[in-house]
Structure formats: structure tokens, C-alpha cells
Amino acid sequence: MRQIEISQAQLRAEQMLNSSGIELTEHEIAHIEIADFGLGQLEVQGLELITYINTDRYCAKELVLFPRQTCPEHLHPDIGDETGKMETFRCRTGIVYLYVEGEPTSEISAILPSGSEEYYTVLKEIVLHPGEQYTIEPGIKHWFQAGDDGAIVSEFSSTSRDEFDRFTDPRIQRNGGSS
Amino acid sequence: MRQIEISQAQLRAEQMLNSSGIELTEHEIAHIEIADFGLGQLEVQGLELITYINTDRYCAKELVLFPRQTCPEHLHPDIGDETGKMETFRCRTGIVYLYVEGEPTSEISAILPSGSEEYYTVLKEIVLHPGEQYTIEPGIKHWFQAGDDGAIVSEFSSTSRDEFDRFTDPRIQRNGGSS
After folding, report:
1. Tens digit of each residue's pLDDT (9 = 90 or more) over A70-99
2. Out of the domains of life, which is the source (chains A, B) (predicted)?
3. Which value does ipTM take for this structure?
4. pTM of the model as a whole
5. Which of A30, B94, B96, B142 has the fewest CB atoms found within 10 Å of its own CB?
6. Domain of B26?
7. Which of A14, A50, A57, A62 to mutate to test the interface with B (most CBs of B within 10 A)?
8. Does A76 reside within a domain?
């Protein structure tokens, strides 16, 4: 990604957080992570993240999604003797359409990213409004998309080890940041 | 505590959360935990809590503090082979005066609860404004007090096992809820 694109996305994420009343330090604002997953279409498939804390026991992040922005399908595998990452998504603002393994929902609310449809294989829909949350067990494939107004999601989880995430789309290169 | 006192504290906590833009479900609102630590002076020494998630790997809570309300000094011990709870306090609104073990601050900003002064023994002060956070290592004594406008604090941590918390004040009985 070009630096100008990163800076613009950081500014936009900062403005969304500001509007929702979530305060960040100057250092956090300067380090908002912009993940385009190497696909080069940030606004369609991408994510903005602030990692508040990531220890060997727990992790907490704020995820910002622009309108209809999608975090691509992935799972968190076991790593050696350690069970894969378990995570709880709590919607703070906007609407989040979350998809996990299970009986597919007949008409989903998300719009599959054009040209990447085949890499979205789990279609059991969970809709999260502000104040609602859902916990994803380790090893379960999942992806999510914000509604038309974007969304802010708090992620509470076990330790984050983004480099081990397994994405369904083989084109994806994960350069830091995850969910 | 009398039911009327619990209900009033729940309503007050709900209003503070509403004002700060933090959304809760109806179920969460109905189950806001009110902890007076058995001391019978909730507004001086007490805490209001919403536990979002508490698994065997991680925990996330929202803590509400009324103006100058104090969470009494305690620590989280090791339990069997498991290292004690580690926790990160992130101030969302208001000001939090947090005290931990270490070189005592010469003039602290908190007001020690009258009649309980002897049970506040760690006096190294950390001041948290909105967006600022601090991580407390396992086994470290700590306590905290909100400023004049109260405070809301997000707590990210390893698993919560409140019943094992060790309070400095021997009069304290812990009936659920912690921080």
C-alpha cells in the first residue's frame, strides 16, 4: 500500500472512533494498523485495527470497518500445544454481519466481494447490533462485513498470533494485524 | 445490600454508560453487578461491573465508578499451578487514580476512604485519562478511585476468578464481581 493510502485510512478510522466517543492516545492514533491483506482493495477487503494489549495470556483490540468493508474468511489454528485463538467480537457502533461455520443462511445480508466470491465458504449469518457480541471458538472459519454505515468492534481474545492465521483466499499475504 | 439500593446503583451505572456511548443489551442492563464488598458504604467503597465475557482463557469487563468511588486494595494470587490474574485497565471516560506497589507518590490525588485508611498500603500513583491504560502484573496489590466526575474503565484480563481475590481489609467479603 502507498503511504498516502495508509494515512488516509488512518485518518478516516480516527474520525470514526472520535465520533463514537472512543478515545485513543496520540501514539495509538499514529499507529492505527491498516490491513489490506495484500489484495490492494482496502475499502472492499480490509480492516483498521488498534491493538490495546497483547500478552501471552490475553489480547484486546478495536476493529474499525468502513461501510461494507470486509475482513476476509480465515481461521486461527492450533499452534504446537496451544489451542488456536478464541475471540469475542462486541459491536460498539454500526451493524456487523458475521459468518461462521454451520447451516448456511439462505439469503445473507453481506455483499460478497466481487471477484473473490469463491473464497467466502462459510455462510451462517450472525447479525450484531451495538451492544451485541459473539464468541468464535478456535479453528472455526469466519469472516465479517460492516453495514452501510461502517462499524466499530471490540475484540477480546486469547493471545493474538496473526502470522499463523489461515485465510481461505490463497492470494492473501498477512502483514501484521488480524482479527 | 437492600434491593432498592442495588436497583438505584444499576440505574445510575446504566445512565453513565449511556452518556458515554457504551451500548449494553437489555440482559446486561438487568444484570449490572453491584459490589459493596460487604462494607455497606457502596458510594465510598464499591464498584459497578458488567462482565462481557469470562472464559478459561480471557475476560473482558466494563467497570463503572461513581464520583470518588473506590475499589479497595486487593491482589490476584496464583491459584494452584495457574499464575494469578493479569489485567489491563483502560480508562474510557473520567479520570482514574490507580495505585500499585512501588515508590509511594508523595501527595496522592485520591481521598482515602474515612475509617479505612490503614487498608490502603500501596501508594504509587498512576493517573489514567480517557484513552490511557495500565497493566497490572499478577500478585501486585492495587486499588483505584474515580475523580470527581466518576469514570468508566474497560478491563481486559486473563480469566477472572473473583472468589480468590485477596483484600487488604479483613472485613471485606467478596460476593461476586471483581476487578
Report:
1. 999 999 999 999 999 999 999 999 999 999
2. Bacteria
3. 0.94
4. 0.95
5. A30
6. 3-167
7. A57
8. yes
